Amino acid sequence: MKKTIFLIFLLLNVNIYSQEKKCSDYKIGKFTYTNPLYKNWKVLRNETEQIETDKENKIELRASIDWVSDCEYILTYTKFNNSENHAIVGQKINVKIIKVRNESVICESESLGAKLELEMVLEKEK
Question: What is the pTM assigned to this prediction?
Answer without folding.
Answer: 0.78
